[in-house]
Amino acid sequence: QVQLVESGGGLVQAGGSLRLSCVASGRIFSINSMGWYRQAPGKQRELVATITGRGTLTYADFVKGRFTISRDNAKNMVYLQMNSLQPEDTAAYYCNGDFIIGIGTIRTYWGQGTQVTVSS
Predict the structure, then answer these.
(1) Confidence of residue 1 (pLDDT cuts 50, 70, 90)
(2) Whole-number Å distance between alpha carbons of 29 and 79
(3) How far is CA 22 from the centre of its chain?
(4) 4: number of Cβ within 10 Å
(5) Which of 40, 77, 79, 108 could form a disulfide with 91, with the two C-beta atoms 3.0–4.6 Å apart?
(6) Looking at residues 40-56, what average pLDDT do you find?
(7) Are the C-beta atoms of 38 and 45 separated by less than 8 Å?
């Protein structure tokens, strides 16, 4: 049905930056929201940032002022600009999409994850 593919993860030093990208493909009628979540080993997956199809933003407190989410609805893409990265940001970052895929049908999809590692 729908596939989400993330890219842009990597290894950076504390204070560095990364830009994550995610593209959704498949049968998508419209986008309810897209966003980013992260999960470190032994920890619960947590919300990082989301953006609705109309541009409403949500940020976790721990990334406010450092990360910026943006999207291109026409391309079914979402981005996460990550600045001032800290070691505690180290995690697998997952792209999420909440899509209307048919009349009265809403489904949530996840990407495979991209690893972000921040060294000190």
Answers:
(1) confident
(2) 20
(3) 7
(4) 21
(5) 40
(6) 94
(7) yes
- For 44-58, letters b (16+ CB in 10 Å) and e give eeeebbbbbeeeeee
Are residues 96 and 80 in contact, defined by beta-carbon separation less than 8 angstroms? Answer: no
User: Would you say 84 and 51 are in contact if contact means Cβ atoms under 8 Å apart?
Assistant: no
State the average pLDDT for the chain: 95
Cβ–Cβ < 8 Å for 101, 29: yes
What is the separation of C-alpha 4 from the centre of its chain, rounded to a whole number of angstroms?
A: 10
Determine how β-strand 114-119 pairs with β-strand 10-13.
parallel
Strand order in 18-26's β-sheet? 2-7, 18-26, 77-82, 67-72
Each residue's pLDDT tens digit, 53-106: 889 999 999 998 999 999 988 888 999 999 999 999 999 999 999 999 999 999
